[in-house]
Amino acid sequence: MDHPVEPPSGPGKGKLKRLWNVLEDPASYRIPRSPEEFQSLFTKSFFQLGHRFVYLTDAAAEALRLFADGLLQHAGRGRFSYSFIWKIARDHIKGLLEDPDRASGTFEVHLAAMVNEINAGYRSWTYIRRIEGIKMDGFREIAAGSWRIFAPADDDVDRIVARVPTSSGKWPQQARDFLEMRFRGKLCFTALVEGDQQHAQERAVRLGQFVVDTFRFAIALGCALQNNPRRYKADGAQVALAGSPQDGWHDALVQDAESGEVTISGGSDESRQPLVIREPDLERFRKDMHLDLLWTLGERSDRSELESVVVEAVRWIGDAQAEPRIGSALIKYWTALEVLLTGFAEQDIARRLREHVPIIVAQFTGIASPSRNQVRRLYDHRSDVIHGRLPRETARTDLHTVASWAAVCTCFYLELSTRGYETREHVEEQCARLAQERKQP
Question: So where are the chain's domains?
Fold first, then answer.
């Protein structure tokens, strides 16, 4: 751990001490002695002391929540999870109740002990999960930063199992069986992440989902620039982390109400197909579609405002690309556009979209720049969908059109972020200049 957590001082320490005074008060805990007392306590017990169940009073529960939150704020929300800090505080309190001699220590002693536990829980973790919807043709892996996508082979399984402590009993064999059954020879996303276990896993899941969303963004951008909504079967190749609600996997049983005959189906949605990536495609994705830059931004915590909204727009496009309901997908593509073009100010959202979407789209060859009336019509339809005013169903061609706008606008903002632009307001000023140039003869 490069920067260990030090015990807090100053006002932060003073606030924690006041909360600790509540937590070390024996009156903050209740031990029910009769069935009637158990029935009066609807909450889950705080912990057990031997055979006795210990409950927190409402005031102590709130003090513990604030204490854990304050300690997390000091330790770093980007490094640890709330549940990890809360458990350390709870276990320390339990230890004091089990051993009254420990309770005689000063607050500083208790605080230092908890900080040591926090530092001891900060580790590096390897996270592995299958990824669906990608087929690599001609190469073995895609890697960037702390993650990679590859199909584990026998030696990869051996390497992981060799590090499982033999003191874990059956765990080495269970780990091998799990890896061989679920992961070996199948495309997986793996990341090396740091923090306590809960926080590290949450970071890995967010990173994996963002990587998935960048491929979905590449699909949307590729379809836009080629003006081909059916470049991939149906509404696009489906890329997802396995086991997510969007991985396209379904099992179903249908029984005839009269005869009782049963039909069982299972497997992935046949209307989808994998995203086949060949080496030239990967190079195009990484450079022309800026996936290398996006993958870097996805792991950075010091992003500018413009870089942050680009990441958020990619997430919305990823959600939209995987959304099976056309109306919901349309809303999500429009949300990506609003995040980019109007999120920094609430005034005149519809007008600014009408003015700026055509300007930005016109910067790209191969895609027709829309008129203001076309942007107005499709934005009005988006509002009808949201508010339940459905004069007509969303046409797939309209969905493709808005998806194209969202993809190329995201690409435009991403390119400007490499040229020193840092805010959406700065980009809007540039759009105004471009609009003025278009008016001049």
Answer: 10-121, 123-208+232-241, 303-439
